[in-house]
Structures are given as C-alpha cells and as structure tokens.
Design goal:
The complex is a heterodimer of chains A (405) and B (562). Chain A has a 6-stranded mixed β-sheet with strand order 4-3-6-1-2-5. Chain A has a two-stranded antiparallel ribbon with strand order 7-8. In chain A, strand 3 and strand 4 form a beta hairpin. Chain A is of the alpha/beta class and 405 residues long. The longest helix of chain A is centred in the last third of the chain and has 19 residues. Chain A has 17 helices and 8 strands. Chain A is globular. With 562 residues, chain B is α/β, with parallel strands linked by helices. In chain B, strands 1, 2, 6, 7, 8, 9 and 16 form a 7-stranded mixed β-sheet that branches. The longest helix of chain B is centred in the C-terminal third of the chain and has 25 residues. The termini of chain B are far apart. Classes of the chains: A alpha/beta (405), B alpha/beta (562).
Chain lengths: 405, 562
C-alpha cells in the first residue's frame, strides 16, 4: 500500500459554478489503477465524483480520461506509474503537471504529498457533462455513424461463409480491436484545429470496412472519405492517437492505409501529402538532416533531378507556401534566408551519413505491415536489431516505409 | 409516454440480438441500456463461440458435451435447440461482418475448448465477444429507424397491467435524471449476470443482477440460482479473466512444486476438463498447501508458440503485462478460481417466455436452462445469441397479436417516492452503500464459492439479511439529477442483495454436489433426490421454494469423468 494524492478536475453542472480542482488522498497498492484510486475516493469520500467505468480491465472503453495530460484509460494506468510519470514531469520541467489556475478544494491541498499530485482530467476535444464524464455522442458517435459503419456486401450472402484471405481478417482485426473509448479523439491535434475532422476512431472504423474483402463498396467509401475536406487528408500525421490508444489499434496507421488505398484508386491527394512525405525521406537519405531549400521543390515537383520543373499546381502550391515560409523564418522555426540557398546545406560529419543509410536499408529489408496481431510485441523485433547496433528509434522509419508512402 | 411494440432491457449480445430479431419481424423496437451498448459485459467473452459446423462434427455431440458439462441439470430440449441452431447463427454473424479467424483455405477455423469432444470454437483472436457485439451494434445503427436506442437509461421497475401481464418499465434517463414510464407489448430482460455480488469477480461493475431482481420482484420464478460458476483462471486479487483459450491453445496448469496436477483430477481431458472440475482441482491444490503463498497456482503459457500467442491470445498478453506485470510468453502467471458466471436466473422456456405473460428473458439473466450446474466455455455467447434471437421473435409475434394494455402510473409514482426517500437520507444516518457492497462481496466469496457447507451458507444468508436491513438506511452523497451514479448504485445494491439471498437459499436447499454446487457436507451427486431444478418465487418473507423436473430427451444421466 502507498499513499497518493490525485488531483481531479471537477465540474458539477447543477452547482452553477465553473470547473475546479479537487484533491483526494488515496491509499492503495501501486499496481492498482488510477481508476481504482478514483473509485476509492468515490466510495469513501464523495459519491458525487462522476466517472464512467465498468470492466476495470481495459475492455469496455468507459473510462477514457487524461492522466497527467496524457489521454488514456483510467483502469489501464497503474497508479504507481502515474506517480512516477508526474515526478518525472516535475523533475524535467520544474513545474508539476498540476496547473494552478483554478481553485483547489479538498483535504489534499494542505498536505505535503499534494506537492506533486497525479492530475486527472476529462478527455479533450469533447464537452464535459459532469466531472470526468464527457459528451461522446456529439463528438465521437456522430462521426462513427458518418463513415457508414456497417458491412455493405454485394448481393445475397453465400450458403456457407465468405471465403477470404486469412491474413485479411487478421489485418482488419487490428481496427476491430478498437473499444471506442475515445482516447485517440481526446488526443487528436487535428481535431483540436478542425472540430469537423472525422477523426482517428471513426477513420480506423472506416478502414475496418475498406480492408474487408467482403465489403462491396470500397471505391465509394474511399471517394467519400477522400473528398470530404474533414476526411483522410485532414490528419497531420502527429502520432498522438497511436500514443493514446490503449488497444494497439494505431488509428493513424489505419488512416495511412486508407490514404494508400485511395492512391491506388487514383484519388489525388489534395495536400500532396505523399510527395511531401517522400521529400523528407529523400532529403534525409541524402543529407542526414533536413535541407529546407529542397523541401518545397521535392514536395511539389518531385522526380525531376536537381531541376525545378513544376507543374501548374506545383507553382500554385509553392506560391501559397510563401507566407508560411516567411512566418517560419520570423519565428525562428526555419533557418535564415541565406541558408535556404540550394547547395549551401552542410553534410553530416564523419561516417554519420553511412549510419543514416544503414537505417534506410534496415527499413527496406523490414518492409512489413506493422500489425500487432501478426507481428507481436516490440520485444521480438528488438533482439536481432540490437546486435546490428540499431536502436528501437528506427521503428517509425520502418513503419512508414512499410506503409508505402 | 414512449411506446414500443417490443422493449429490450440491456444491450449486450442477448439484448442486441433480440432487438434485431424483433425488428426483422417488422415491429417497432426500443432498446434500453444503463451504459452505452458497446460497454456491455459481453465484451469480456474472449475465447469464442461453439457450434458444430465442421464436417464430421454433429449437433448431437455438441449437445452431449453441454449436457455432461451441466452435470445433467441442463434441460435437454433447450440444449438441443441451442446446439442445432448454432451453425446457422455463426454463418449469420459471419455474413454480418464478424471477422472470424480463418484457416489456410480462407474458411472458418476453430480452436479447442474445455469440456468439448471436438474443436468447435469459432473465434476472433481473443476478443470474440467484443468483435461480435460491435458488429451487432453496427446493425443497430444501420436499422436505427426501426430500433430506437436509449443509451444510458437505467431501468428500475417492471409495470404489470391489471391481468398481471408485463406492459412496461420505469426508467431513469441517467444524463438528466428524468424518470419515465415506457410502454410495451412485450418486454425482454437481457441485463446480464450478477457477478458483482461476489468480490473479486471477473464481471464488470455493471453486472449487478438487475434483470434477475426486477423479474423476481414482479413475481417471475427464478431457477438454479445456486449454480454460480468459478472460472479456473482469474488473476488473484483483481479477478481479471485469463481466457480458457489459453488452455485451448495448450497452456498447462502447475502447482508450486511444478507438477501438472490435472493428471490427478482429469487424466483424459487434463486442463480442458469442465470448469467446475478444474476450479475444484486448483482449490484443492491450494487448500492442501501445494499452491503459491499468494493463494494461487500457475498457468504456464510459455509452452504455446510465441507467434501463436501473439496472434490468438493477444488480449491476455496485455492483461498479463498491464495488470500483473508478467510477460506471459516468458513466464507462468499466477491464477486462481474466481467468480465468473450466473448459470441460474429468470426461469424461461425455449422461446424466452417467463412465468409472467409479456415478460421475456435471454442471456445470462435467463435460465432456460442450457447450462445446468456448469456452463461450458464458449457456450455463453451462443446462449445469448440463440435465445436472444428466439425471444426477440416470440416477443414480436406476441406484440403483433396484442394491443397496448392500460397502464397505471402508480408504478412510476412508487419509484419516484423511493428515489425521494433515498435522496432525503442524511449523511451519516446509516452505512455507506460501498461498505455494504464490500461486505456482501467478501461474504459471498468466502462462504458461497467453490466449496460450500451448510454452516457457511447459513452464515452468509444471515449476513445478507442484515445487509438488507442496513441498506434501508444507507445514504448517498449525490443529490443531483445529472449522472447521479450514487443513486443508481443504491438501487443496484438492492438488486444484488435479492440475488444473494436467492443464491444462499437455493444453495442451502440443494443437499448434494452437482456442477458448481459442491457441498463438502454432501460430496456426492444424488440423482435420486436432486435431479431437479430449484425454483424460487418472491414472498414478503423471502424466497419460496419449489421444484421442477429436468427435461431429459435422449441422454440418461451417467457418471461424469474427464
């Protein structure tokens, strides 16, 4: 048993007051969950503390919440680990994860352990109804329904089962593993900017049908999701949903699969996203670090070696990028103008570029789908990689190459 | 007043399947659930669903395994219906989009499961319940014009008309606290089991026996309430489930001396004997000092090839890692028997009809009985779907031939008074709801579990009666309308106490050992006196006992060995 202080962002809609923080001291084994901590506070101190929960085993998807700012399931986060995380955050930044902008109530506020409490908030990108309970209907379920979330097979079903490639069933089982908890929606940066974005959960659900060989409307689904301005090209590729997902669904990967399928269908990517991504891949392969002077050219007029032969659309896109570039320079996010002259960009010192290329070779020889139902856990791929001196940090590279972008 | 031809209470597999089946018959359907439907506990069914669909397998073989598993307390007509209709149901689900595991030819593939004489368990990795339930929910969304969904509405009382027929239910909209009387021509109870009466349990916090208690209070008979399954592989302390699929894939059970002890108890089926047999074997090892100090034995999954574990048992890799800190592909995990399933419930016929006209029940809430004294793994999903479907159809047929009854608002007023009383109790006027729940759970797990005897059950019954009194003055903190979970917990506690009382009374009555009921004071099965169901009916003085015959069609009871 150990003592913890949890600091909960509360909102009691019938009180006429705004949200506030309340601290509770709880006493439980470090291997128990943050949800267990909340339930102890609810059981022993305040039954009005509202939190949706049911299975306690990360299966039902009820208890999506933010713990120390990270979207997750309360039942899946061990309270001991949450405390370590809060401590680490404080050590790294000098400030505790707890904000101090709202009044604090409760006994915990006077105690020493309250110094660095575990901070618990309702999920983001959703209206809060009461305490940790959010309105998922308006933000999550309406979007799930937006993607026509049921199988649309062609004609009458066969007498027995549909005979399909066994791998295809395993492939979509990854998105079937979604428990609709909303953690990915809560963490989605695109949705923060564009609340209309269909979002990671609904698009992962959409892939479940697009990837299903029994579904007969793949083409229509892809056009629908690609042509909607809030559709598959609205994802900014930030990986937040992959971090947040408690079930390994990797929603962003499912979105990338949708984009690839859309590309195969001949649908044009309005953001030139694929070319833009490949621009990074090519530049890093050649130079080791990002040479911004090449980025626009490679993104919008790829394939012409060393020469700028842009199409009409590329010219438009490049002109359109100028304000962004100027803002970038002004705010120090891009380097100064002289360094934007092609050819000035320096190379990596010593043999570092060879190491970069080794990573590329590794990624190419491991060109597989990253589906946990097929591949298993990280542990396995690590072993022989470590021998070759390649750390796990190469994984995202492998992953992206494997997504065929 | 919201009105639907058929009203389904509970939206797990049984409820959703019932709603879809009723809608197919062209009637209007409402489905009410106290949580969002996809949060329902059918999610937790990991391992799979049984059906004799392979060439060479037969429904008779499936039926026999089920009946033997039930320790001959299952009604054989009901078991026949379930096993005969199973293959068609699997294909129906596959056509709706369930991503069942395929063999190399791309056809449906199976895995082995406990108590079965053939590999006939169809599955989706180890998220079978979740995969099926989400597909059924897709269908609910698809047919939203015919099926109205009331998500996060809590039901508290059934309404009967002047002829004693069920004609509606009192509900509370959890989101705003408003209470309404819903009218219906048929009502189907599909609210799941009562696992929360025990602590620990594999069951979710929502499994508080609501439907069983509501039916009981309305005057319907309950049956086989003493039959409570303890699952052989649950995590110590937390009660989380490790799927039987693990043993189906070849995992071993070991005691602290490293012995594969099932050799002694079930030399033929070993780890894949019936659940009651395996749970008793484990508990015996633990009681006789061959368990680990934390009161457990070990489940060794390392003997299963790693790739297979990741493909087929991924969920428990996560459970091991996140909840026990164990990598199950590298080391054994400590487990023990834990409360898991309610074989008994609301007594129904093979079309889900209870003793009250217009009232149906399906799934874990109901007792048809197909599971008798012990349910086989991967038969629960099947039960929910087959009897969900059948009750949905029959409820629709009834609705077509009847009119809405005159419904009295009295039941709504009674319920409103009850809520007002709960809200008015002063803090400190009695015990906290959570304290009573904890004492109830620990009492039941201590005294009405794998091994039982008269003194222990009697003691549990006395405690339950005291807790019932204490519940009358227990207070709640939340006096608001919006998401008042405190108030709902207080009503659920009432349900749980009714469930507990019935289980104690039935367990005390059955003076033999059969299936999950093992009486150390009556260690033998006694067909002569006890090959019968115990029925319970509510009176003001507690449950009244009666008996009903076990239906036997073609399988005479014989000695049960594995």
């Amino acid at each position: 048993m150990a003592e913890y202080t949890i600091k909960v962002r509360r909102f009691q809609p019938e009180s006429g007051e705004g949200p506030y923080w309340e601290q509770f001291n709880v006493d439980l084994d470090p291997s128990l969950s943050v949800l267990d901590g909340l339930l102890q506070a609810k059981d022993k101190e305040d039954g009005s503390l509202a939190v949706r929960c049911s299975c306690r085993a990360a299966i039902c998807g009820s208890c999506g919440m933010k713990v120390n700012g990270q979207s997750t399931l309360g039942c899946k986060t061990q309270i001991g680990e949450a405390q370590e995380q809060a401590d680490k955050m404080k050590a790294a930044t000098g400030v505790s994860a707890a904000e101090a902008d709202s009044p604090i109530r409760g006994e915990g506020s006077d105690l020493g352990s309250a110094d660095n409490p575990i901070v618990i908030e309702p999920m983001g990108n959703m209206p809060v109804i009461k305490d940790l309970i959010t309105d998922m209907e308006s933000t999550h379920w309406t979007k799930i329904r937006r993607v026509t979330p049921w199988l649309l097979p062609h004609g009458e079903p066969p007498e027995r089962e549909y005979v399909v490639d066994p791998e295809s069933m395993i492939d979509i089982t990854q998105s079937m593993a979604c428990i609709q908890c909303g953690a990915c929606v809560s963490s989605c940066l695109s949705m923060e900017a564009d609340p209309g974005f269909i979002g990671p959960a609904a698009l992962a659900k959409a892939y479940r049908f697009v990837g299903d060989p029994r579904d007969a409307e793949t083409e229509e689904r892809l056009h629908d999701l690609a042509e909607d301005p809030h559709g598959i090209y609205d994802c900014t590729h930030c990986f937040s949903c992959i971090d947040a997902c408690p079930k390994g669904v990797a929603p962003m990967d499912q979105i990338m699969r949708l984009r690839r399928r859309a590309g195969e269908e001949g649908i044009e990517d309005p953001n030139s996203g694929h070319d833009h991504e490949m621009a990074f891949v090519k530049i890093i392969e050649k130079k080791g670090t990002l040479d911004e002077s090449l980025l626009l050219q490679e993104s919008f007029a790829p394939g012409v070696k060393g020469k700028l032969k842009p199409s009409k659309r590329a010219i438009k896109e490049m002109l359109g990028s100028i304000p962004t570039a100027i803002r970038g320079i002004k705010t120090g996010k891009m380097r100064s103008l002289p360094k934007l002259i092609p050819g000035v960009h320096h190379k990596l010192p010593g043999g570092a570029q060879d190491d970069v290329q080794a990573i590329y070779r590794h990624a190419e020889t491991h060109n597989e789908e990253f589906n946990l139902y097929i591949k298993g856990e990280e542990g396995e791929l690590a072993e022989d990689d470590v021998e070759k001196g390649i750390e796990r940090s190469t994984e995202p590279a492998g992953q992206e190459a494997s997504n065929g972008q | 007043m919201p009105s639907h031809d058929v009203l389904v209470i509970g939206a797990g597999l049984a409820g959703q399947r019932a709603a879809l089946a009723a809608a197919e018959e062209g009637v209007s359907v409402g489905i009410i659930s106290k949580v969002h439907p996809v949060r329902s506990h059918s999610n937790a069914a990991q391992g799979g669903i049984n059906a004799a669909l392979n060439p060479g397998d037969s429904w008779e073989s499936h039926a026999f395994d089920t009946i033997k598993g039930s320790d001959y307390l299952g009604d054989q007509d009901a078991v026949e219906v379930m096993t005969r209709e199973a293959p068609e149901e699997i294909l129906h689900l596959e056509h709706l989009g369930v991503t069942f595991h395929r063999n190399e030819e791309g056809k449906l593939g199976t895995r082995a499961f406990g108590g079965a004489s053939a590999a006939r368990t169809y599955y989706v990795a180890d998220i079978t319940g979740q995969a099926i339930m989400h597909v059924l929910y897709e269908q609910l969304m698809k047919y939203s014009e015919q099926i109205a969904r009331y998500e996060e509405w809590f039901c508290s009382s059934l309404a009967l008309d002047e002829n004693g027929e069920c004609c509606g239910v009192v509900t509370r909209n959890v989101a705003d606290g408003s209470m309404e009387l819903f009218q219906a021509k048929s009502v189907i109870l599909a609210t799941g089991g009562n696992g929360q009466v025990w602590r620990p349990t594999t069951n979710a916090l929502i499994c508080t026996g609501d439907g069983i208690a509501m039916a009981y209070r309305a005057g319907a008979k309950l049956m086989d309430m003493e039959m409570i399954q303890y699952h052989p592989t649950t995590l110590a302390g937390k009660g989380f489930l490790i799927t039987e699929g693990a043993r189906g894939e070849g995992a071993h059970l070991l005691n602290a001396n490293g012995e594969r002890f099932m050799e002694k108890y079930a030399p033929n089926k070993m780890e894949l004997a019936s659940r009651d047999v395996v749970s008793r074997a484990e508990q015996t090892e633990i009681n006789e000092g061959r368990g680990f100090p934390d009161g457990t034995v070990a489940l060794d999954i390392t003997v299963v090839p790693k790739k297979r574990v990741h493909e087929a048992l991924r969920e428990i890799v996560l459970v091991g890692r996140d909840f026990a800190g164990v990598d199950i592909t590298r080391e054994p995990i400590h487990i023990k028997p834990g409360n898991h399933y309610t074989m008994g419930g609301v007594k129904t016929d093979i079309d889900g009809r209870t003793d009250i006209p217009g009232l149906y029940s399906a799934g874990e809430t109901a007792c048809v009985s197909v599971h008798g004294g012990n349910r086989l793994g991967a038969n629960s999903l099947l039960d929910t779907l087959i009897f969900g479907k059948r009750s949905g159809r029959d409820a629709a047929a009834r609705a077509k031939r009847t009119d809405y009854a005159r419904i009295s608002k009295q039941v709504l007023e009674d319920e409103e008074n009850l809520v007002a009383d709960l809200m008015s109790r002063e803090k400190g006027s009695g015990r906290r709801i959570s304290e009573i729940k904890l004492e109830l759970g620990q009492t039941m797990d201590g005294k009405v579990a794998v091994f039982r005897d008269e003194a222990g059950i009697q003691e549990a019954l006395e405690i339950v009666k005291r807790l019932k009194e204490e519940a009358k003055t227990a207070y709640i903190d939340d006096h608001g309308s919006v998401f008042n979970q405190d108030l709902i917990a207080a009503i659920e506690l009432g349900y749980m106490l009714d469930n507990a009382e019935c289980t104690c009374v039935a367990a005390l009555e059955r003076k033999e050992s059969r299936g999950a009921q093992y009486r150390t004071d009556y260690p033998e099965r006694n067909d002569e006196e006890w090959l019968k169901h115990i029925d319970l009916e509510r009176t003001d003085d507690g449950p009244e006992l009666s008996y009903s015959e076990v239906t036997i069609t073609q399988w005479e009871p014989q000695e049960r060995t594995y």
